[in-house]
Structure to design on (268 residues):
């Protein structure tokens, strides 16, 4: 290897080293320090009138979990006359649609797509069909704490708040390296969200549990992730994006690295 190649290899090494150091060391430390300099927003303790809220559940071939998800949604603590539950199914070929329709008598609406177009396309349609002024986005396998909707909704009494992200917790009893790795990642992500949220500049939500003012949910491309793009757009329009760790969604991990790989490929 000549001197030119050696210099190029050395430069490449330092560049590749700088990327993870920036993401996992420099940025978290900087954000932790910055969050201490900002005066954090605080959600109001009391709400006179709860906003009209639509809980949007996205589903594709979720017959194994959708019934439990809807039972959980119906038990959430929120004024029934101010809550709409809307399930957007994306060309499901199993019994997902039939199960959702069986809950129609309990106020659950089904928004069905005849073909599989992707999660973002289904959510774009759901936003247009929703009646609430505040939209809460959820996955079909997410189970909310009973007060999750109240925890999210009360932030919107502050006009400057445009988006609120809840906390995702994985529960699998410690089975498998994949599950443990997933929990470690989300524990790290939760710390980041606390620091970013304290400054009102959280730049990414979690698709399992986040709330958004309806006027900020503009249609986005099918290749884009709504829980990343919509919070950024809200911030660019001058709204604060905050983290509410007491609004909790629980999901089970796949339990293995291979299972997690399949789950992530499906999401993408």
């Amino acid at each position: 290897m000549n001197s030119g190649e050696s210099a190029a290899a050395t430069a490449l090494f330092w560049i590749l080293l700088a990327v993870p150091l920036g993401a996992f060391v420099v940025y978290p430390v900087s954000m932790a320090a910055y969050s201490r300099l900002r005066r954090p927003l605080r959600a109001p303790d009391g709400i006179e009138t709860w906003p009209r809220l639509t809980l949007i559940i996205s589903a594709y071939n979720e017959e194994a979990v959708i019934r439990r998800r809807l039972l959980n949604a119906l038990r959430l603590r929120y004024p029934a006359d101010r809550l709409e539950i809307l399930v957007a199914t994306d060309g499901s070929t199993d019994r997902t649609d039939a199960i959702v329709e069986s809950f129609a008598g309990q106020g659950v609406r089904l928004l069905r797509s005849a073909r599989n177009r992707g999660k973002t396309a289904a959510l774009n349609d759901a936003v247009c069909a929703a009646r609430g002024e505040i939209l809460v986005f959820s996955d079909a396998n997410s189970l909310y704490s009973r007060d999750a909707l109240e925890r999210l909704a009360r932030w919107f009494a502050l006009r400057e708040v445009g988006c609120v992200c809840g906390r995702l917790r994985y529960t699998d009893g410690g089975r498998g390296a994949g599950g443990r790795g997933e929990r470690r990642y989300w524990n790290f992500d939760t710390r980041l969200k606390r620091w970013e949220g304290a400054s009102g500049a959280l730049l990414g939500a979690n698709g399992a549990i986040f709330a958004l003012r309806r006027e900020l949910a503009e249609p986005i491309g099918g290749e884009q992730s709504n829980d990343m793009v919509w919070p950024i757009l809200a911030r660019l329009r001058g709204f604060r994006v905050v983290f509410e760790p007491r609004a909790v969604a629980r999901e089970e991990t796949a339990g293995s690295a291979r299972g997690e790989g399949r789950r992530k490929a499906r999401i993408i």
Summary: The beta strands are 53-59, 83-90, 108-113, 134-139, 143-144, 161-170, 210-213, 240-251. The chain has a mean pLDDT of 84. The helical segments are 3-37, 66-74, 96-101, 119-129, 148-153, 177-198, 226-236, 257-267. The CA atoms of residues 90 and 122 lie 6 Å apart.
